[in-house]
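From the pipeline queue, job 12 of 40. The input is one protein chain; the requested action is below.

Action: predict structure.
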Amino acid sequence: RVLAVDEDARRVEELRATARRLRAPQVEALLADVLELPASLNEAFAAVLLDAPCSGLGTLVSRPDLRWRRSPNDVERLAGLQRRLLRRAAALVRPGGALTYSVCTITRAETIAVLDDLLRGGGWRLDDLGAEHPRFVHPERGGALLTLPSSHGTSGFFVARVRRETRRPRGNS
């Protein structure tokens, strides 16, 4: 079962249409704010992908207008939103499950800093995506990936996957 959540009605309807066209009844698109998902969904998912809203500064090659539409305040504001979204997404992952964090930007505030905030809280370990994709290894955080227009001929993206630690049985320390 795949549950896709978006607060944009147009994107949700596009996903529903695509799922129907592909005859994929296991894909459900939900129009909702991730931050307001019910607590009953906590620890319900083996894997969660958070493709977070971001400054988009990794896409300047294809969207040069962003250069004039973004400010340093946007980056900090979006980084705060990303932290809240990542914490909420983390609550949805069951012990042993994976959480993938992805943004189309390369700013430290929206990438490493957001990831480190989650990791500092404990209970998570960074999977080594760099070992799987050495061409895209992040220079500061080898387990994460970073693509750069100047090096890879792509847009700038950051991707990290963390795994929730499994709980110890009660009574053991």
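Job complete. The mean pLDDT is 92.
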